Amino acid sequence: MRTLTKVVLEKLHLGLIVSCQALADEPLHGAAMMARMAAAAEEGGASGIRANGAADVRAIKQTVSLPVIGIVKRNYPDSAVYITPTLREIDELLEAGADIIAFDATRQSRPENYTLEQITAYLNANKAVSMADISILEEALYAESLGVSCVSTTLSGYTTYSRQQEGPNLELLEMSAQQLKIPVIAEGRISKPSQVEEALDLGAYAVVVGSAITRPQLITRQFAAVTRKARMKRNGDE
Ligand SMILES: CC(=O)N[C@H](C=O)[C@@H](O)[C@H](O)[C@H](O)COP(=O)(O)O
Q: Strand, helix or coil at 183?
């Protein structure tokens, strides 16, 4: 493992990475807001931050002293891939100073005929620390063969051919951690501390939690579902 990669990744080892993201249609959208979210996550003991967009990466880098994993979510008409889909998004993240660049490393076709091999070769040529977001074991193994620094189970359940399930895909995590030599990060649908513990026990190098910490509209929805049920029961009883 290259020195820079080793230094950056070791800061994340056995740590909690908090994903601080809010798209334009979410209530907390905005770089300043995500920087405050990251400050709160740092105060709470996070070892790293995952952020979307150059503006958010810059604002967060100026606010916390933690490694920042950067992505750019961008939709293209000719592809289902939206996490750092092309070299354009990689350039934006390099410019913004992301410590790690995460990208879609699924077998789905990329926009503008870009290939996964082009993406990883460009990242390696720029000596970037890279994180391959995968959805199945084969993608993790292939990404490792292309020289990525680490993989993350981010996209399990988000590709048509990967397992669709409510909670985190800990089986994918366990198999990947057993079969890969590079770090495997647990990410996606982790919503309680016990799942973080389970992921670490299964070999996760680090664990990413996003929505369960930084999307209050989704957290509120879970609590409101309980009160709605109580009101419906009361109305049913009246
Ligand atoms: C599928 C997709 O686009 N996932 C994104 C990847 O960056 C984020 O929206 C997730 O919030 C992040 O992966 C953390 O996952 P969770 O929010 O489930 O803790």
A: coil
